[in-house]
Amino acid sequence: MWIINCCRQAGGMMKENKSVYIMFIFLQSVLYGIGNPVTKIAFESISVYWCLALRFSLAFFVLMLFFGKKIIRELKSARIMDCLPASLCMAAAYISVNLALKWTTATNVGFLMSLPVVLAPVLARVVLKTKYEWKHIPVQAAVVAGLYLLCCGEEGFVFGKGEAFALITAAAVAGALVYGEKSLAGMSACTVSAAQAGLTAVISLALAAGLEELHVDSVTPAAWGVVAYLAIGCTCIAYLLQNTAVAKISSQTVSMLQTSQPVATAVFSFLILGELLTVRGYIGAAVILVCILAESVFARQGRRSV
């Protein structure tokens, strides 16, 4: 509840302080950093699409429980294209990332999921007509190098179907950030979050019903706990954090800050799954943190010059 209240009040209480929105994205990265490895635990007793269907259905119910009147009011006055592109991109992102986690390591997924830092500025230039500042290119290049060192290990990067789905996730996340920035011009963060969760739930339910069977008796208590965490922590809270931040700082900046996610994923993958981080991985994590600090400075300078 504290986080939800922070998302509600941030715009009014901290209009000039952008640091709080930067911290929102860091907190989101921690939530996802835990969520990526524990998702693999859930897959031991529950199928991918049913895990998604239950997660996003529960998330949509929770969002409607807290913000239902506001969500319905805003959706009635909105056009379908105000929220459909961002919602479709988010649905594609979460379906593809869960398939990626099924077929490859959580650390490799963390690396590829952070590639929106390269894709989002280009897409924003096309969709939002924003100016692309060339000073970001060296930082973006360094982030990609840092992500590679962090997640690929001593043997280099092996590309398979898990990595292919993670690439789809990266493109979809970039689209969700950019179109989400456009959606948030006329709707609140809770409404955009509910639309994204609701559409993902509908698509996931359709896929689950058509492709898989749910054996409730075989689902372990740990898997049910993971579904609850993913629904509340990695969907309701994480969506609100991201959409609140995107409404105040650019999608390009958010995509850069989200490169902290593979660092968090690597840490929790070690603690939860025993996935080891090499010396190169530690170097990569340090590079990413330096780049995030640089991008945070750029974001503040840009806001002061407006």
Sum this structure up briefly:
The chain contains 13 helices and no strands. With 306 residues, the chain is mostly helical.
List the helices and strands and how they pair.
Elements: H1 2-13, H2 19-42, H3 48-77, H4 80-103, H5 106-113, H6 116-127, H7 136-152, H8 161-183, H9 189-211, H10 221-246, H11 251-257, H12 261-273, H13 279-305
Helix pairs in contact: 1-10, 2-10, 2-12, 3-4, 3-9, 3-10, 4-8, 4-9, 5-7, 5-8, 5-12, 6-8, 6-11, 7-13, 8-11, 9-10
Key descriptive features of the protein:
mainly alpha; globular; 306 residues; 80% helix; 13 helices
Report on the structure:
There is one protein chain. The longest helix is centred in the first third of the chain and has 30 residues, at 48-77. The protein starts with a helix and ends with a helix. It has helices spanning 2-13, 19-42, 48-77, 80-103, 106-113, 116-127, 136-152, 161-183, 189-211, 221-246, 251-257, 261-273, 279-305. It is 80% helix and 0% strand. Mean pLDDT is 80; it is low at 10-16. The chain is an all-alpha fold.
